[in-house]
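User: Run a structure prediction on this.
Assistant: Running it now.
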Amino acid sequence: MFTLSLTAQIRVAKVNLASAAFGTASFSFEKVRDKQFSWQLTATYRPRISGPNMAFNNLETGWELSGSEAQVIGGQLAYRFYTRKGRTQPTKPYIAGYFQHHVWDASVTHQYDGTSYTAEGKWTQSVLGLQYGVQWVVNDAWSIDLTLVGFGLAFGQVSGTATTGPEPNIGFWEENLGSIPWVGNHINVVGSESPYTFKADYTSIGIHSALRLGILF
């Protein structure tokens, strides 16, 4: 039987099951201020491990991804407004304002036409926006928190260095980097020989969702 009592939901510790499926640990702590308002703090961490890099899937045919590593550290602060006050409502929709900040340290190596291209750098992004979701509490002990969608204005920067093998085609590489979503068309590679430097500042739309399992205490 599902019951929901926000007066009982004083503190909730949660883990994001969706991010855990991709190797990223994300933990949240929610403190209810009264029956309709609460704040939630989230911390996110992913160790530097090898894995697929979806950002480069759009590079032209002929590019071969031979290595990819990334570490992620971040956090989010959200202030929630629950749209229902009832103590025994089976569902509790909420709207929240949030601020989110993440830092990625990453390296990516590609091969093209016999030449290797390795980019190492940092990607930082801050997002200010709104969330909509639903939270359930089971037997005043467990919570299921589904953030259906969060969206906002994102401000970010990508910077780093690039090393290459002999006779690189930097112009062609830079052109292909332009296919990376959101940031690619802002990347400029600078230098006359390896190592090169690159930097991009951008503004875009930030979108996210989450599925959290929590325990009340």
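The CA atoms of residues 32 and 38 lie 4 Å apart.
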